[in-house]
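Quick one - first record:
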Amino acid sequence: MLVLGQAGADPAAAAAADVQVQSVFDFIQKGGVMMVPIIGASLIALAVFVERLLCLRRSIVIPPGFQAGVTGALRDSCGKAVDYCKSDGSPVAAIFLAGIRKLGQDQALVEKSIQDAGEREVVKLRKYLRLLSVIAAVAPLMGLLGTILGMINAFQTVATSGDALGKTELLATGIYEAMITTAAGLLLAIPALMAYHFISARIDSLVLIMDQMSVDFVEEFAAPGASAGVISERTVVSDNGRKLIMPPAPAAKRSKSATPADAPAETVDAGDSGQAVAVTADEEDAMEDRAVSAGA
């Protein structure tokens, strides 16, 4: 009598005792066949995110001290700078290598070479990122498709059951199981979209740093009037690694008529010796007078 009284007094507790605890595996199993591609896509997205995080560390893309190292090597010779970039192997080293091989040529060619190399390296940095974007876009659609298939199955079960009239729990159970795939698709799409934008922002920041380093390189070594402390000759390193040493462009001869009247000194050509002698305007006039007197 006491047991019956307690059971009748608390029917909700008795109903709760019959409810089985749902595990994650149970939800996956009830989600239907579309849970398989959703789980597979989630594993791929996680692998891409971790791989990009490891490869896009700044110490990997732009090693510490690289700019100072390549600048010091370039001031010795282009060959040392090329070897330095090849041994480094980082994306920024590949960009600098393309520019160093064009040094001694027109500035536009150097900039174009750096730009082309930069575009290639950015494509490598964005590797697998499109896959992450596709997963973020397709995951909700896969979840919706799973829900539609589950709804079709639920209504078909109710329609084929002869004693289902008035039993809403049959339809409710089918609908709740069908909604699992929609929730799973959204649970995959939201983190995947956030991961995509996080990786994209990191790539943009790295590209901005490499772009500024490239600008500094061009201004120091390739622009007209750049610092002369690099090399005395114009050294061009071809794509096959051969170094071509080209002499500097000869200086134009300066005529006396083009010299300002108040110029303190003038540089005249010393003949085939390749050396220049600095004389004042008065000394040049005296030399001409002596030449005229000797001719007379």
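second record:
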Amino acid sequence: MNPQKQKTNGELTTAYNEYAEALLRYCYHKTHSKDDAQEIVHDTFVNAQEYLEKGNEVENLKAFLFRIANNIIVDRSRKHKNQKRCEIPLESLNEKGVHPESMYGMDLIKRKIEAENILKDVQKTEGADYLLFLLRYIDGLKPTEIAAITGLTPNHVSVRLHRMLKKASWVAKNGNGENKGRAR
């Protein structure tokens, strides 16, 4: 094995140990499928290895990996644009004897639905900001790393994150976000 390939494999092994879990969470949030997320993470590291073995240099490997993963997700969503996720109506579950409210407790279900509604409202209003929100607060990336992934400036990322937090706080206080008023 040549020294360049050995160095590349070592870098990617270290990167995998450090970033695979965060990449998997990011991909899962984007695809809503554990299997798809795992496949995308695998493809991300394969693509990164091919790129590095060609002798290309990468300044920030973490941002580079997230960029590759994001590009793969976008490519897949374009391919499967017309396919819709299958959702099972609650009534059909009840007909089959499955009662989710009795399995988990109504309070837990209500809190989960409330949290999902807030995130859905935030996601609907500012799709690009929602991505920034996920990268920062779910995956723990710094604004400079997010800037490298998205192509924005670090300052722009910080400002948009601040506005997003303000809006999420407003939605949480004032209901489900159907009111058209601005977050103050």
